[in-house]
Structure formats: C-alpha cells, structure tokens
Amino acid sequence: MDWTEIVVTVEAEKIEQASDIALMVVPYGIYVEDYRNLESETQEIAHTTLIDENLLTKDRSKGLVHIYIPPHDNPSEAVEYLSERLTAAEIRHETKTVPCKKADWENNWKAYFKPVPVGEKLLIRPAWEDGYNQDGRTILNIDPGLAFGTGTHETTKLCLEAIETIVSPEKTVLDIGCGSGILSIAALLLGAKSATAVDIDPLAVKTAKQNAEKNNIDPRRYTVLEGNLADKVSGTYDIIITNIVADVIVLFCQKVAEFMNRDSVFITSGIIDMRENDVLCAFEKNGFAVRKRREKNGWVCFECTLKNT
Hints:
Shape: globular
Order of helices and strands: EHEHHEHEHEEEHEHEHEEHEHEE
Largest sheet: 7 strands, mixed
Structural class: alpha/beta
Number of domains: 2
Oligomer: single chain
Radius of gyration: 19 Å
CATH architecture of the largest domain: 3-Layer(aba) Sandwich
C-alpha cells in the first residue's frame, strides 16, 4: 500500500511554527522547504556560491512542510488535526495530499539535508554528502533512515550544544529515546568513555547501530537496547539525555534519578515552550534543580542535577 504525502503551504515567516505543529502529527518523516536565506545558508554550510538553478526559481515568500503518513494511519485525521492547529495559531495555509511510495519519500527529503555545523565542535554530515568544509570540527556521519534525529531540528541542536559542554573522557552516557543515535554517538565522538542508547522502535535500534558503524565507533563503547524508556537499563550514568516530548519527560522524571550518579547531569529537550511549566513542575516534584536553560524557536532544553548534590 502507498503512503500519503501531506503538503502544507504557509507564508515563509510562519514556517518554523508550522513545522513545530507538523511534528506533533508524526515524530519523523517530514521535511521543510524554506528558501528565504538560500544564498547565505549555502555559503555558510557548503562554502560555495554555486546553487542549482531550480532552487533559485523557488517562491521565497512561501514555505512548504511535507509530512508522510504510513498506510495504516488515516491521513484525513492528520489533515484535520493540522488544519485545526494551524488555524488556531492564525497561520494561513493550503493543504493537499498525494499518494507516495515509501521508497520515494525515504529519499526525497535527502535533497534538503545538507552538512550543518552545530555548536562549536560538531559538523553533522549526511552519510551520502561529500561536499563540505570540515573547518576543524568533529564530523558526525548520520543516516537517520526512518528514525528521528538528523541534527537539523532545534531540539537535537540544543541537546548537542549541551553535550559538547559537559562531555569528557571519563563520562558515561545514557540516551533514552535515541532515534538515529545522533546524541549518544556525538557524545562518544566528543570523547565520552561509553554510551548506552535505548529506543522502543526496533527500526531506530537498527539505525543507531548502523550509524555507530558509519562513525567507526568501537562496539565495546556503545550498547543499543530495544525497550520502553529505561525498563531494560541498569547501572548509573554521568550524563542522561532524553529528547522526546514533554509528557514522556514528565513521566520519566519519576525514574531518572535511579540511573544518576551524585554529580550526574540530566539533559532533556523535545519541550515546546507552552509545555515548559509542566516540565518544570515535574523537576520540582522529583528533586531536580535546573542549572541551565537553552531555547531555539520555541523549543526548550534543560540541564538538571539532583538537588541533594
């Protein structure tokens, strides 16, 4: 059976907000077309002024969000939800649906995923891209497949920026809801001693292992488990990362202290700003102190420690 592609067209200045709403429909499988800063972004990322002629003719006043719905889901429900949320946010929009072979969308979005610097130390490189300027950064090769985590979403960037400031050679890492494995693999590339990654989706587990191989990670340093949150995890860790959604973070706050050392840091993101207070209440209730807050385009990331440390 075919998948369904939903294409939402909005005013370009509303594209980030529309993308955030789209990510409430599916946790992965979207890509965004936004050509407002085409020349400057191409120069910054690829260090070239050569741009495909077809891209130069794109309408820069509009942005497009592409969402992919699997055969077993009802696309009309997704369209109704999107329209309701976009209207409530006062975002004018046009929506269309078209049949789409799974193989098509798995590859179409790759045209929009280019090497991108994150923080001060990393360059996220799509595994199929050869044209990039390393500029002294650590290269993280990534092929997310159908798993969440390319490094382009704000929540992933926020977590990566936090990781690079606290990772060190003796640190152990636990990555809950690892998706493509991008966060735990980044920690290892930046010098962490070892990492354990967990995801409930067997496809994500497979993808994380494959991405570790693409980055020449010693398998003795990296363990990937299939499980629901930390139900398969034992031991304690120096850095614990969860980049999921607010409701799951609130739930996990009840358990995460079991896996923390005295000086451990809990990095958590996936929190849209309207849910920030819910997460802060969960921190307070479960004995966490926020030591740093980061924000990008309405998404929030926290670094927390236990209050009794």
